[in-house]
Amino acid sequence: MRRRKGLLALVALLLLGNAATLARVAWNRSGSPEATLVLTERELSLPYHKSGEDSGLALRLRIDDAAEIDAAALRRLGFDLSVPLDSPRAGQFYRQVRTRSAWLVLEQEGPAWESWRERRKRELGARSPSDYDPESDYELSQFEQEERMGSRLMVVEAGKDAAALRRQYADRRRYAIVPGKVELRFWPAIELEPGKREPTRLEGHPDLASDDLHVPRSLRPLLDRLNAAPPVDFFGDSPAHPRYRATVAFGRSGEPWLVRVERLPR
Amino acid sequence: MALPSPAPTKLEAQRRADRIAAFRAEAAALEADGVLALSPEQRERVARHHDDLLRGFARQFDVDVNEGERRLSIGMRIASFFGALALAASAFLFFRRFWGLLDTPAQVAILVAAPLLALAATHFTARREKTGYFASLAGLLTFAGFVLDLEMLRQIFNLTPTDNALLLWGACGLLLAYTYDLRLLLAAGLLSLGGFLSLWTGTWGGGYWLDFGERPENFLPSGLLCLALPLFFPHRRQADFPTFYRLFGLLFFFFPMLVLANWGEGSYLPFSDDAIEAGYQIAGLLLGGAAITLGLRRGWRETVNTSTTFLVVLLFTKLFFWWWDWMPKYLFFLLIGLLAVGMLLLLQRLRYLAAPRGAVPA
């Protein structure tokens, strides 16, 4: 009798766990997508390592590393920024602050990316020739590489209320609102060289809650062909130009799924 | 032959079988020394009664009735544990190897069906076999199948990871453990639920749930709950389950203390790192000693062993940090050896104090 009841409870639990998960999927994908972005290989990269043990394929959703959340948004998220950065207890205080969940607004190839590109161009143009070797300008080649293959998907805002963020960023073909987290990073002041001092900084660093995008079998042929090809450059981690673009839908819970994958002309 | 009333559990039957074996050995020794002289009828009556009891226990519970069987049982338990782990790994790797060749509906159908089939196998083997080794193996497959099921569904549909999965896995482990008397599944269930409670503690103040491991204090409530539960819920049928509650309770409780005694930065407490480390060192020594004393008084072997291990590791890590660079190596190891001797003497004293009067010679 005890075993019979236990068995029934276990069957119910297994079915309930699956039903709840599939209901989450159905809810997320019901109705029109909350946002639809067209991304390229810059933002959705193939896996770095291929393993014969794993026949599945997931693309990695990459956001630009330079993204930072400003102080006002950090306060709205509930971070306590009351201790001045020059206070002796600032380091210990901010290192104790915990990472918080947040909705992140992702912008695809929009004003934030344009502004980053213009700023970097100005910075590189403003250098005096004594700052670098024109023959092997590492900073310039880095910038060119970033411009060609770096992700153009930028985090432009973070908040607790997804609906309020959507009202603020209404263009559903440029902005997606996804679950993520924001971490505080405290950088104490350092003396780079005599007379040149980097001041104390506090950054709000955003990150996605999940950055893997599963590729269903029907959308795999092109990606499998590209994934099977040998590395395209010396380091094997970055092609010269994006080779495909993908349409990604984001549902009611901000969780994405792949809709289409197309080859990009060379 | 009628079994003693009320009907014993498997653990009670095994303990009775052990007492019978000890009685037989001691009676033979006493007779050889000429201290005890049973008449042939008495000896015959006792032997027949014990044989009947052992046959009944063996039939009903498959208990070990001699040392050879006991050794074989330990071997079977180990084989069942590693077999279960290997089969679970095999199921996971098999699915990973071929899932990319399947369409989404087929993937979902396999994932949903796998734990249900493993559960049917668990139920079938538990009914057919008394020892529980095969049921334990199938039970762990059910648990692993359910973990794989929810995790792979999450990946296939790009869902955000959620803490609720740990709650479901924990419930699955505990239900399997209590339905089929499986200790291995109790361990799996307690680990999952302990993890769930720890991350729930971590998110209580608004923190991000996946970062719960960065604050060792998040594990302390799980430890206290595991330690308290067997005090409020007596386990007559699964008499050995409280041992596992105490074991995992102590691990959830002492492990964070060990970490914080060496890494004050990970604490929630608003004090300097040095003060936090010193506080946890003192608390660790006091609580470790108290747990050993309690374990000796109550006869909880796992409590004594876990607490002693904790104290030894706590002491040795601190001594290493304090003295390794500061003194010659021979002196360091000499002090470690002397401390070990001191600890042995202390434990011996505790053992004597905890024993019932007259049981241990002074």
Write the H/E string of chain A, N to C. HEEEHHEHHEHEEEEEHEE
Low-pLDDT residue spans of chain A: none
Question: What structural class do the secondary elements of chain A suggest?
Answer: alpha+beta
Counted beta strands of chain B: 0
- CA radius of gyration of chain A is 23 Å
| Secondary structure: helix percent of chain A | 25-40%
What structural category characterises the helix and strand content of chain B?
mainly alpha
Query: Per DSSP, what share of the residues of chain B sits in E-state strands of 2 or more residues?
Result: under 5%
Beta content of chain A comes to 25-35%
Oligomer: heterodimer
CA radius of gyration of chain B: 25 Å
Whole-number mean pLDDT of chain A: 89
| pLDDT < 50 stretches of chain B | 1-5, 358-362
The counted number of beta strands of chain A is 12
- Give the SSE string of chain B: HHHHHHHHHHHH
Shape, per Cα inertia axes of chain B:
flat
End-to-end C-alpha gap of chain A: 69 Å
Task: Tell me about the largest β-sheet of chain B.
Answer: none
Number of H- or I-type helical stretches of chain B: 12
What spatial order of strands do you see in the largest sheet of chain A? 5-4-6-9
Summarize the structure.
The complex is a heterodimer of chains A (266) and B (362). With 266 residues, chain A is of the alpha+beta class.
